[in-house]
Amino acid sequence: MTSRQVDLNSDLGESFGPWTMGDDEAMMDVVTSVNVACGGHAGDPTTMADTVRAAAGRGLGIGAHPGFADKEGFGRRVIPMSTVEVERLVAAQVGALAGIAALEEATLTHVKAHGALANLAAREDEVAAAVARAVRAVDAGLVLLAIAGTALERAADRIGLPVAREGFADRAYTDDGHLAPRGQPGAVLHDPDEAARRAVAMAEGRGLPLLSGGWRPQEVDSICVHGDTPGAVEMARRTRAALEAAGFTIARFAS
User: Fold this and answer.
1) DSSP H/E element including 194
2) Using CB atoms within 10 A of its CB, is residue 53 exposed (0-12), middle (13-18) or buried (19+)?
3) Sign of the CA dihedral 49, 54, 56, 61?
4) CB 243 within 8 A of CB 203
5) Of the candidates 45, 12, 130, 21, which has an alpha carbon nearest to the alpha carbon of residue 81?
6) Cβ contacts of residue 72 below 8 Å, gap of 6+?
7) Strands (E), 133-227
8) How far apart are CA 218 and CA 209, in angstroms?
9) CA 104 and chain centroid, separation
10) Is the pTM of this model over 0.90?
11) pLDDT 10s digits, 141-189
12) Which of 40, 167, 187, 219 has its CA 20 to 30 A from that of 99?
């Protein structure tokens, strides 16, 4: 990175009805940006409103986190759709959270696709373009938080949509720069100290940690610490502490 500043983001608001996921309140005391589920893979209007209100009260960046409408699979299964349907899906979910934010007198700053939708958009140009068009249609000022170095980042650049590059402290990558499948051994990290070390290396511009060993050169603007894994809050705390100890200012990437 060219500066000693980095954003920490987390995917929150993933409860719905009587079902709860993660410790959102504790996570919001650590990160600087949040990505709020919009009712597709998780979330409901009350959860969305509560999450937006809590994030706004802390001055955090507030992003929409659209995904496939698949609560049973937590949005981690590809649901076959045309690119037109993807575009409408993303616009509907981002628009829904924008409406909730308006009710809470808060403002959306960014959009980050979730799970299988994000991975598909990272690899397929047409899906990436559909996601970028949908975001621009809702609000051309929203920043698209894209997996760094992927088709989604390039799609945002092509249409002049603001883009931020995301790295993952608790994930490993394939040699071509994509997230390793979750079912693959070593793809998901559970050691908070190792995740913290990786986050510092990413922030310092070393690149993306590869499952095969070594690093793939890539700069990032925001580092994700997932909120839905065991020990997520402790991992986030150690990651932030390690970054600050390395001299980084932790600050939101979007205003």
Assistant:
1) helix 192-203
2) middle
3) negative
4) yes
5) 130
6) none
7) 143-147, 163-168, 208-209, 215-216, 222-224
8) 10
9) 22
10) yes
11) 999 999 999 999 999 999 999 999 999 989 999 999 999 998 889 889 8
12) 167
Q: What are the angstrom distances between the C-alpha of 53 and each of 17, 103, 104, 122, 138? A: 18, 10, 6, 30, 21
Task: Please calculate the CA angle 172-176-181 and round it to the nearest 5 degrees.
Answer: 40
Which tokens in the block code for residue 164?
């931020």
Q: Locate tokens 């939101």: which residue? A: 252
- CA dist 172 and 109 (Å) reads 27
The residues near 14 (Cβ < 8 Å, ≥ 6 apart) are 21, 22, 37, 41, 42, 43, 47, 227, 228
DSSP assignment of 28-62 equals HTT-SEEEEE-SSSS--HHHHHHHHHHHHHTT-EE
**Residue 204 in tokens:** 């310092």
**Helix (H/G/I), strand (E/B), else coil: 197:** helix
Decide: 235 and 225 in contact? Cβ < 8 Å: yes
